[in-house]
Amino acid sequence: MDGGLEPVRQLLARVLFDGKALQRVWLDFPAHPLQQEYPDGDRAQIESSKVLKRCAELEELLGVKFKNIRLLAKALTLKNVKYNDITKGHNQRLEFLGDAICNFLAAEYLFKHFPLHHEGHLTLLRCTMVGAPTQALVAQQIGLDKVLVSHIILPHKLLVLIS
After folding, report:
1. Burial per residue of 80-99, b for 16 or more beta-carbon CB atoms within 10 angstroms, e otherwise
2. Nearest alpha carbon to residue 71 among 109, 36, 25
3. CATH class of segment(s) 38-162
4. 8-39: per-residue pLDDT in tens?
5. Domain spans in the chain, listed from the N-terminal domain onward
6. CA 106 to CA 88: how far, in whole Å?
7. Taking Cα atoms as reference points, which of 80, 107, 77 lies closest to residue 94?
């Protein structure tokens, strides 16, 4: 609570791994493949892609600008979408990470704002905050349902369509 996440990462590296080389593996993780492909960002790709144009519209709505906008497209790409040049696949791995982050942030919020509640009640509140029904409602309220990449049509080129 005092120092943020970095001191916890450092402590876990020292506790879990003997030797600096293994600790570095824990601490120095590589960029996502979409970030590696365009290390300075991929925003130049927006004009050539309907999907990325819709993602740019979503950025405006959210007030957040991504250096690598294809990461946003990937986060919005449903599981039934196969490999394509824009997202390089579906969102399941990003969803795994996003779920963990949402749970952490909700837990932190509840822990700090309800200091007298016991852990069982905090767990119920957190589950309500980050559960699928709440996420679906929030996603609909901010317009995510209009930009989910839901399928690909194949003639000879991969075309990603937005539902």
Report:
1. ebeebebbebbbeebeeeee
2. 36
3. mainly alpha
4. 999 999 999 999 999 999 999 899 999 999 99
5. 1-30, 38-162
6. 30
7. 77
